[in-house]
Amino acid sequence: MKIVFNILIIFFLLIAFVPVFRRFMFHLLVGRQLVKEQKRQAKAYEQKTKAGIRVDTTPPDASQSRFRGGEYVDYEDVK
Predict the structure, then answer these.
(1) I need a surface site. Which of 25, 39, 62, 73 has the fewest CB within 10 A?
(2) Could you tell me if 42 and 35 are in contact, meaning their C-beta atoms sit under 8 angstroms apart?
């Protein structure tokens, strides 16, 4: 029992005071998941760009619209 307690204390001290060990533990616990998520997001972005998003600037029934060229409104400068 004393051996397990000593190992836990040493492990805690390494995590608390040794930045290299802390970075290594972070990479083991979280780093792999970050890499997987980055790859998944890159794949989704690539598929989205391959889909070819098309944006029409004018609606198909624009020729039937009663507003041609827009309307103008008089205004006054307020100083």
Answers:
(1) 73
(2) no
